[in-house]
Amino acid sequence: MLALIFSRILMMVPNVIILTFLLFAATTSFLGTPAAIMLGEDASPQAVAELNAKLGFDAPLLTRYWHWISDALSGDFGRSYSTQQPVAEMIGAALPLTLELALWAILIAFAGAALLNSVTVLRGLTDRLVAGVSVIGITVPNFFLGLLLIYVFSVQLRMLPTTGWVPWSGGAGRHLLHLVLPVFTLMTFYFSSFSLVYKAEYRSVERNLYVRAARAKGISEARVSYRHILPNSILPLITYAGLSLGQLVGGAVVTETVFSMPGMGRLLVTAISARDFPVMLAVGMVIIVGVMLLNLLADLTYSLVNPMVRTAG
Predict the structure, then answer these.
(1) Which CATH class is domain 89-262?
(2) Alpha carbon 244 to chain centroid distance?
């Protein structure tokens, strides 16, 4: 297991370097000169050149990237151009919310897809329920579903808060109430896609000889489903969940914007609007590293469930 972890981390290093370099080049070059954007369209070429020299923007791209990545790896992401706050503090305040939102969404989607599609006693009812949610999740965009849920449950029924976020210190009940609609919005698509993957694998495993033998012994259908079919059907779902983590970040950006939640998604949207390069770069780097770490976690989970992978590693 340690050898598997070490090899995965070694594979991550060049990927992080390549992706962060592309991020840095695209952000500081393709979007325009940072000094020109900071000073505005009416700034003179001399003023732009002076600010470029002062902030180090006139150095070669590789030199600028090296200075930025060196500082970033030490925890120094610089200061925000728009608020003058340390970017590391802004990331530290926004990251926990995004992680919690994504964690709730992926866990509920994963567990719901595996458990509901394994129910045999109420197969007809659960199939209709899963099919209905799947149609909504796959066809309705995140932002529209979020607005629709706000209109129904907040405006019309007045059951749940409209937007915003309450930390745990403000009360567990209020905190969880503010998470219901965002989590459901973000979870719906992944529950739908996970259900399709798991159901196809479940039907395939169900035809195996050992499943038919278990049923022939008189073992209850629920025990056959959860003890024999589910463990052997869940492996592709783990793989697909790992591949979906990058999309989960994009979905969190939209969801946090719709519900006005002060997470990484809203921070990124605000930074892009203000051309706040240090914040844009920091958020981008955290997302890149975070997705890779989550994929590593998915690989380790897969190896724990499937001993053959662990042996091969």
Answers:
(1) mainly alpha
(2) 8
